[in-house]
């Protein structure tokens, strides 16, 4: 039951945050040149697509949670039990708040690190830091992933899609 309420709040929060991103941040902070004729090549196309997709996924998670809550209440009513509604209001967990603050701090650090190390090296550092923040300690797994994923994505965008990315002091 607790997870249904948590998923409801996560879904609604995700939908609200990405609706704000879609309706305010992207239109106000992504510059679209007037010469862009095709929507698919617009600088705002993918951020908008992903953002609206996350709004939809958040709403789907919230809707699914509401249906599960309704089923649990009906089941409890059939069995003559009373549902414990005290878990409907989540308690603040200091570890979750700390993890949230570390995540935001890592995002800000990543933003500034790109200027000095370039996109690929700073992405490697950021991906490794995120795995540490969220508790993954299998370094035989995290180190290769932290190196290979940014390397593959950098190669794809620079060599295949011909999209220039910020280069670091090593030129990559």
Describe, in short, the structure shown.
With 172 residues, the protein is mostly helical. It contains four helices and no strands.
Helix content: over 70%
Strand content: under 5%
Shape: extended
Which consecutive residue ranges, at least 5 long each, have pLDDT under 50?
Answer: none
DSSP E strands, number: 0
Tell me the count of domains. Answer: 2
Rounded to an integer in angstroms, the radius of gyration calculated over CA atoms is: 21 Å
**Cα separation of the termini:** 49 Å
List keywords for this structure.
172 residues, mainly alpha, 2 domains, extended
Describe this protein's structure.
There is one protein chain. This protein has 172 residues and is an all-alpha fold. It has four helices and no strands. Helix content is 72%, strand content 0%.
Task: Chart the SSEs and their pairings.
Layout: H1 2-29, H2 45-78, H3 94-133, H4 139-160
Helix pairs in contact: 1-2, 3-4
